[in-house]
Design brief:
Chain lengths: ~220, ~300
């Protein structure tokens, strides 16, 4: 069974394919399958293929490419993506985490807000195998989904001016890891020493969209 | 004179960076594209000195700079209109200029526009990172250049000096837009945006221009984050638009009411804080025609 999708122009230099599947992770899996097929197809004039949660944005060089041709190629490729196709990625990355304390200054508050003990928050956070739904905000920042529903909180009222690199954080239906120092509004529950973005490596980001992630507790 | 030269940026100004056409191919990993905000001006400057149009050059923002040649160089200045002098002699814009060792090129007072481009024959020879020589604020020593920065010049030339190029267009404060993906969910939002007169705020950067003016209510509850596009007019919860520029974050969750066409990003790049800007709807066919006309000397005809 193929999935339904809707194609939209995003200005004159990008197109967006919306996957219309209802379940978020199913829609997201279709986004990754479509991205993979487009990458393999190597459509001339495509400069970037950027997954989001339910959409795939394809950037086109408008000066040297007929965007109508890309539109047709996208439609043909999207038609081949099935809802039940196998997972495009088997890469599983284990991220060692130190939960709580100085490593995760918001753990106690998150536990209180969720009505759980801190230990239970850590257990539930580490119990799920996550999908890298998309990467954005900062180079190498993974939006890992979906977080256990009992751990979902809105962002902090006041974002921090500086979040330490390696901070493991939660907000909404995602958990993520700050690859570098930056301002941030997510709740910090732990820390990892695993570098997520390294310009000396190729690819520079350890986690790519569609990959799988598991957090491994190294204590508190 | 075929490159391999050196220069010193004696006075860097407010925000002078090295920019080419940007870092494409890594947005799925969260890496911003960056590159020259005014690509057409970059292309014109490079053409004047016989470079490939997308060669790395200086982008000079709002405040001028002083370049001292340590070897003989050919340079060209395009984009924002600054008083240009070589050793205190006034020079015309949009012209290839010859510098002898020790000569000083000064971008003095700014007359109009926001960003000038200084191309050097052979290209600026800073290291390529992820396929681009463009500045990257995250990297040590790859953000804005400091006074006294020494920059090497490459040997990548494709044509003679001073035969190609076209004049810098007059400033335009009316940007053509196409409807954004979220415009359909709120009828009238595009018309409201195009009715207003907006002003570029002092927070404007290479990432985005926050605008002030009439609020345009557009709230799309539960809109998931998705890939952004340069030229997108995102609507904040306050109803105020933000115009995304080349250094934009790769994904974002705010609704997009409209998207400035590629041909008019050259004009957007020349808006300074305090400048007024308005928007007007157009069609994709007109957008592509405008781009091909503006960049005719460098664009392949499909």
């Amino acid at each position: 069974m193929t999935v339904d999708w809707r194609l939209e122009f995003l200005g004159d230099a990008a197109l967006s394919v919306h996957v219309l599947a209802e379940a978020p992770l199913e829609a997201n899996a279709c986004v990754h399958r479509l991205a993979e097929r487009l990458r393999v197809a190597g459509v001339a004039g495509v400069r970037d293929i950027v997954p989001g949660m339910r959409e795939l944005v394809v950037h086109v060089d408008p000066l040297h490419t007929d965007i109508g041709r890309i539109e047709a190629a996208l439609g043909t490729t999207a038609d081949t993506v099935g809802a039940g196709d196998g997972a495009p990625s088997t890469t599983l990355t284990e991220i060692p985490v130190t939960y709580g304390g100085a490593a995760g200054p918001d753990l106690e508050d998150v536990a209180a807000a969720c009505g759980l003990t801190p230990d239970e928050v850590c257990r539930r956070h580490a119990a799920v195998e996550y999908v890298v739904c998309f990467v954005g905000f900062l180079p190498g920042f993974p939006y890992l989904g979906l977080l256990d529903p009992s751990l979902r909180l809105p962002r902090r009222h006041t974002p921090r001016a500086r979040v330490a690199p390696g901070s493991v954080a939660v907000a909404g239906e995602y958990t993520g890891v700050y690859p570098g120092a930056s301002p941030g509004g997510w709740h910090l529950i732990g820390h990892t020493d695993l570098p997520l973005f390294d310009l000396g490596a190729m690819p520079p980001a350890r986690l790519a969209p569609g990959g799988r992630v598991r957090f491994v507790a190294r204590g508190r | 004179m075929e490159g391999g030269g050196r220069l010193v940026l004696e006075r860097a100004g407010l925000h002078t960076t090295v920019q080419d056409e940007g870092r494409w191919g890594y947005q799925h990993l969260g890496v911003p594209v960056g590159g020259a905000l005014d690509l057409a001006a970059l292309h014109r400057a490079n053409a004047l000195v016989g470079n490939m149009p997308g060669e790395a050059a200086f982008e000079v923002t709002l405040v001028g700079c002083t370049v001292r040649a340590e070897t003989g160089l050919h340079v060209a200045v395009t984009g924002a209109r600054f008083d240009v002098r070589v050793n205190d002699v006034a020079m015309p814009p949009d012209t290839a200029l010859r510098l002898l060792p020790g000569d000083e090129l000064v971008l003095g007072e700014r007359r109009c526009g926001a960003r000038a481009y200084v191309a050097v024959r052979g290209g600026l020879d800073v290291p390529v990172v992820l396929g681009s020589r463009s500045a990257w604020p995250l990297l040590p020593r790859r953000g804005a250049l400091q006074d006294g920065a020494r920059v090497f010049v490459g040997t990548r030339v494709v044509g003679p000096v001073g035969t190609a190029g076209s004049p810098t267009p007059a400033p335009v404060a009316l940007l053509r837009v196409l409807p954004g993906p979220d415009a359909a969910t709120a009828p009238g939002v595009l018309a409201a945006l195009c009715d207003g007169t907006y002003r570029v705020t002092p927070a404007a950067s290479r990432m985005a221009y926050p605008l002030e003016g009439p609020a345009v209510p557009l709230v799309v509850p539960g809109r998931p984050s998705s890939g952004t596009a340069t030229g997108a007019l995102q609507i904040l919860p306050s109803g105020l638009p933000v115009l995304l520029m080349a250094e934009r974050q790769t994904t974002g969750g705010y609704p997009v009411a409209a998207i400035v066409i590629s041909a008019d990003l050259t004009h957007a790049a020349q808006l300074a804080p305090g400048d007024e800007v308005r928007f007007t709807p157009t069609t994709r066919a007109d957008a592509l025609r405008a781009l091909r006309t503006a960049e005719a000397p460098w664009g392949a005809q499909p």
